[in-house]
Queue: 2 jobs
Job 1
Amino acid sequence: MTSTRPGATLVAGLAVVGTMIVLAIAAPLVTGHDPTALGLTAGLQPPSWSHPFGTDQLGRDVWARVVYAGRTDLRVGVLAVLAPLAVGTLLGLLAGYFGGPLDRVVRFVIDTVMAFPFYVIVLALVAVLGTGERSIYLALAAVAWVNYARVVRNGTRGFAGENWVAAARGGGLSRRRVIGRHILPNAVPQLIVLAVTDVVFVILAIVTLSYLGLGIRPPTPDWGTMIFDGQAFVTTQWWIAVFPGLAVLVTGIGFSLLADGLADLYRERD
Amino acid sequence: MRSWARASGRLIAYAVAVTLAVVVLAFGLSRAMPGSALSAQLGSHATDATRQQLAAQLGLDRPWWSQLGTLLRNLITHGDVGPSMVNGESVRSAITARAGATLSIVVLAMLIAVLLATAIAVVSATHQNRWPDHVLRVVLSAGIAVPAFWLGLLLVLLFSVHLRWFPVAGLGTGPAAWLRSLVLPAVTAAVGIVPLLARSLRAQLLEVLHADFVVAARATGLSSRRILLRHLIPNAALPALTLVGTNLAYLIGGTFVVESVFTIPGVGDLMFRSITNRDSTTITGIVIYTAVLVVVVNLLTDLVVRLLDPRLARGGAAL
Amino acid sequence: MRIHRTAAFGAVAVTAMAMVLSGCSGGSSSGSTAAADSEPVAGGALTIARTGQNVSDLDPVAKTLTSNNAYTLDKIFDTLTTQDGDGALQPSLATEWKASSDGLTWTFTLRSGVKFSNGDALTAKDVVYSIERHLKVGGALPLSAPITGVKAVDDGTVEVKLSKAYTPLATELATFASSIVPDDLDGKSEKDFFADPVGTGPFKVGTWDKNSSTFELVKNTNYWQSGKPYLDSVSYTTVSDDNSLVQQLQGKQVDVIQDVPMANVAALKSNSALTVDTVGSWNQDQVFFNTSDGPFANRDLRRAVAQAVDRATLTQTTTFGTGTTGTTYIPATVRYSDQSADILKYDVAAAKADLAKSGVAAGTTVKLLVESGSQARGQQAQIIQAALKEIGLTVEIEQKDSATFWTTFPSKDYEFALTTVIADTGDPDNVTYWQVDSHGVSDSFHTGYQSDEVDKLAAQGRETPDGDARKDIYAKIQQLVAQDSPTLSLDYAANILSTQSSVHGIELIPNGTLQLQDAWIAQ
């Protein structure tokens, strides 16, 4: 039995995510087809040399759409994590450090959002804001910040009571300095792991929204819409729904392994 | 004792306040959505007169605060938010009629998830950084990453349409058929939960594996299986249990995808339909009952954890 | 599994039963489209899966009439007249009807020997009550006919007085909302009566729980067509997604599915265990232009769009050959639809010329509002987008769910919109009245279209008796409307039904309903 190095998970995650990112960026190089060009007389063609993943109902090249959709879904997936990460971290830090009424308010809001079925908020907000990328960022941010806030708040609360913080404060360090230089760095590893895991959830949420017809606007290719469009053909022209589904799966596995590997790394460093 | 009562009182007051905030937020959201129960129901060529009649019938012609007031009054006096805007039936009875299906899926999914996650975590932790651990990590990652509706679609095609092992959709009548019709939905729902549980369990297991009491137990010559069952799993299970509690709302909310794929007439399906129909009474009702359930389950989880936690049971810092 | 097919009859018993039945019905043919070689067999429970909402209300004049409510109503109630698979008017509770020479008095002769499901005989009083109730309440499908009075001449004759000649009257009385209920609802309150309604139709309510996705009808033993219905019961299941329909049929979980996804028709047809039946419908996927405000107030721009889209290819691609290419706003299955009208054909050069004439700069962005929830519509929107790109217009697609769409569209907060609409009857006045007549109910279906000439002709068409003169009037209207292009009919969809091959005798009507009185299941 061979024992592999602990960093293997991290490397595997990086490799998968890296490949997906490279494919997305190099999309024009890996396919000669325009992902939005219709070929109404060449629809539903099975995989072949000219169309490795076949064509969809409107005659568009599925391979081209899968790699171009990577641009959309990866971009939205990563960007949609940043806002809640920033807001959640900030609120969590403030609540955790200062405690008192501010902490109570933040905790109250967190508990309220947590008790709310996730998709009710997201679906309602998307309906309010209209479909499209901007709505996705806002709707997901409205819900997702809670996780970061909770983690950071609990972490900070732990540190805030510790002697070294009191000592640092007693030693004349400003609050900002204590938060910025001491408390925040302690929370960062956990936050990074959480954020990378969250990318997977966000991509799933986007794909689910698109599947419900509320996601990315056509004709921008997107994995969820592709699955939605292809599900009617799943018994006859399986390639239309199966390849974008696999793309979601592989991307998700990549990010998930990456998060797992990072968590290992931080655990070992401690 | 008095301090315990005061603490409990504060806890309950807090839970009530959270629930109230949830009610107001749910009502606000359902009203902020463009369109209304009118536009969802009247269809293409309704006259203005019909529109006004229906608005009056549904109470939609009154100002929002008056509607919220009615809703809250109904909630306090009857424990119900009122009649649905789609079929006039009591929202509470609509939810209770459907809660069985959803809770069955959630409970069955949990059961599957806990069993699978425990097995995976034990194998992973006892083979840390060797190939079974790596393979299982990829499997878990796949569980997180797979879109539920896509997985459901493929499972139905394979097991229902081709192999005919399970019904394609709907709930079966009779206990056996009913259970059989829940298998695929529960498995689909469980796939998303297993990684969360298994990862937490694995991490906890690894931690306790190196804990003093396990080392001590080993030294006294206890078999590793006995150590695993008596010490490791109970210790590692607690954080996982808490994890289940905190993710309950997410799970219940997420069942709508599963219910939609398998055409299970559950609360998730009702929720999606009421959002589509702008049935603000039903939306608010579902959110309230889910929130209450979440709060209660979290309280219970807290209690169970306190009960099971050997450290707390032994009066604190025994380790 | 939800199949409760009663397999009580053995092979011998089946034959005997069939002979008894054919004796009863006097050997008359069933008249159904899906004719089978063998004789109908009585008994059995039919399971039907359909999309949409659970049955919520069985009052024909309720304020909301969802399709599943409507498609259930017509099993329980009958109307004076009815429409067959070709959309042609047929006798039902009335055996004949006649308008006076001035068109102001209509006389309906009622079928004798008709009983309600509770055993009471149908009389003219019931018909008078039903029409008066419809007039008074209005409901989702109010009567447009200028009726001034309804009276019972005798037990078997009803007279309807009009203030103005109105040719579509007999057709209008065939809609779901004109169902005949017993006089004074049998003395019951509306709530009580419609919880378990009494009608003359082939079925009555079996089990109905508004919170359940299944709804059951059972045989009306007092039904006036002797020996029918053949089925003991019909059980409906509502599903939220049409892909699940196909899987349930393939998995043999149900006998019949309605609203078959067009993409699956070919696969279902190739399956020998299944039967697929297609009939032209009154549905159409249609683009509506906001003619009163925004870029499409410009007639030349509308014409440019109409000529830029290759509707034949669009229809072929998005309906998989099941639909018919759209031409005029009157669906091909509706009377006097003028398919030969010289309308704006697919012609990119002409489209570019009209665009130039419109003065709209190339590269201008226009917003297409699309009702979400249908794969076909989503793809039609993308085809339009690609087609308009060819002539230099950029299309931004805005998908909105139904509730939002039906708020945005009626408030005219759109530039051009794509949705699916259905005519209520097979008379050309119906779709003309709500789509292009500015005196109609909805501001020419929210397009704001107004043409004095069209309005004048529409009024004439309504009063002119059926025949060549009336046909010419509608031909003229269709010409005028096509030239102005307030709407663009992309395709006329088909109603598609798929069943297990053991199911026979279901008739599909262009309004989307299934007639089940002749349906039977081979054992």
Job 2
Amino acid sequence: MTTLGQLGLWLALLIGAWGTFVGFYGGYTGRPELIASARRATYALCGVLVVASIGLLVALLKHDFNVAYVANYTSRDLPTVYVLSAFYGGQSGSLLFWAVVLSLFGALAQWLTSRKYDHLLPHVAGVTCAVTLFFVIVTLFAANPFERLPFTPADGSGLNPQLQNPGMVIHPPMLYLGFISITIPFAFGVAALLSRRLDTGWLHAIRKWTIVSWLFLAIGITLGMWWAYVELGWGGYWAWDPVENASFLPWLTMTAFLHSVMIQEKRGMLKKWNMVLITLSFLLSIFGTFITRSGIISSVHSFAQSAVGYYFLGFLIFIILAMAVLLWLRLPMLESDAHLESMVSREASFLFNNLILVGIAFSVLWGTMFPVISEIVRGTQVTVGPPFFNQVNIPLGLLLLALTGIGPLIAWRKASVKNLRRQFAVPVVSGGIAAAILTALGMGNFYAITTVSLAVFVVGTILQEFVRGVGARHRLHGEGYLQAFARLVGRNRRRYGGYVVHLGIVIYFLAFTGQAFRVDLEASLNPGETAEMQSPWGHTYAFTHIGVSQYDELNRLVSAASVEVARDGERMGIMKSEKRQHFICSAPIRPCPRQLRKPSFEPSTEAGIRSDLREDIYIVFAGVVEGTEEAVYRFTLNPMVWWVWFGGFVLVVGGVVTLWPGTTIRTVGEGDTQGGYAAQLLESKSA
Amino acid sequence: MKAKYKFLFGAVLVGGTVGFLMTSGIKETGVYFLTPSELAAKVSADPSFHDVGVKMGARVVHGSITRNVGTQTITFQVTDGTQTYPVVYRGLAPDTFTDDVDVVVEGRLEPDGTFRATTLLAKCGSRYETTPQA
């Protein structure tokens, strides 16, 4: 099967090169037979890469340990789901994964895009084939998953236990889907530039792709946080690690892009900026893969150092140069149709939203690269950690949160005093009251008060929109409230889906605030002894060490420590935290006799976690004092963590509403100066 | 056009804020990342360097780890081949911390030559791949 896989890759090399050539050349000359061939090339490319992927999957499932990749990432005892996830768990497999998914997206873009955009599609095929070709080249020449060993080991070395977690099965593919799908909007941007068709057509063609890829990134990042939280055992979910930052960067620029395209669609402004943003997003998605693959920045996450990094660096530089030239050539065609009329307008608030998002992205990139930059400039490495990122990004994030409330409601062009009062009076007063209440309650944390107050303001604007919209439909169309609500959302999916996404973002912000109030306690306890701690909500928790037991499980030896937990004197039950020593067997016997076991990897920790809406109890068992039954623990009370996952859920719901098929596109009419849907509806009725 | 200039002013303000936050952030929280030899050179050139928090990346000397679980203190030695420092760390060590792994310790070098670490990170060179079987 690996022969078949290898063959698939070589065919992909040929077809990818052909598709790139006929895509661009066919687009340039407009010759129908070349254009048709480019389209067929994207389908064929997808086909041969699927065959290559099946080759790798079969080798994994058949435990063909003669294949180096299979031997390095799996073992006989590994549960099947993790065997399958090993496909993208290692470096070369994940590159193949990129190639196959990108070719699939490339084929889908050809197949699903409306015939209206036929003038763009040959160039789109050229770009997707070219990018896929790059990944195929890296896979073939720098990191080939089909490489064989000179001998066949009895068993593989197994998958890192920290990756043996359900979150880790879906987190990487989600993130990859987000990364990879950015290529499609980018390809349309390039196609618009090359074909000189720089109207809003290409923006309409990619609208869904943009939201899909943004959503995948958001889901991937959130799942990554969840995985870090349950698996890494340090009690948090975000450490500003280079790999985390790498996933965050394209999300930031894509968020900026999602907003700024609306300005181009409705007002014909920001044409150059949008091209720059989508190019940046694409570059950052490649860069993200690059820094996780090259080990250029020392990170706890870094993969093995390899030549792969040079391929990525070369590719990045090529894209930057090519895009700079292309943009420069088309600059005269990217002039704005309109100018900014007032600072108090939708346009201005979106511009600031963009500035801040790009500012955040720049600071995160700078902080991530700072060890490398300082080494080049000053000769010594200087690192910046979470304090840097928090110090810079909390104020910027709060400004952004405020704009989340302002942007959707402020009028286009120039907001009148009447518009401002109508849209913002109630939310601003509510936010102010919230701040006053928190201060009166004695909360001293400035950022926390600001966050809650802004959150109330934003939620106020969103609720007001729903209430007014439903009310307006009820009055004007005589619909019942439920029906009015359903129609309101159903007929304006983009607007109301967007509001729900904003709601999800607000929930994230509130949850992040909880981290400011986290408390930790390290304690060494004999059986029966109790450690007590105070939660930020005012509860007293008592943790009583019960004992440590040892037992075998599937592919590991487990030491489990049990703790009895009580809140305010009331028993809550027993929580367990584990230390796991994974092993591999030197003979294919099950269960593996003790003398044949070889420990694989360092021991790993399973934290004990109990969540409720207010706070998480997070228990880490660190080990026993040699020769005694005394156990060392770290207890953490982590406020509001549940809301991070809930925020992710709300965001996905909003995204799905936005994506639901059948949305019609409105262009801004003269009547739409008020912002807000209810106002529009009323005006259109009275006109 | 007036609005455009006002916006540019606002943009400069936002850009300036980002720049200011970043430079002050780096000044206040940036930490030198040194090898033991580089640290030795810095300290001998400027003794006040003892008061500066640094990060040191080095390898744990085989067999040098002693753990006192009762006081939750770990002492071990790190080296880059030329310079060796004893390290004292109080707290929980990460799972990956064992003999011969690369670690990053953050803390201060005391005048007596002991490195007092407040954080201990063990880097597995290839975290997601198996360590080579000896």
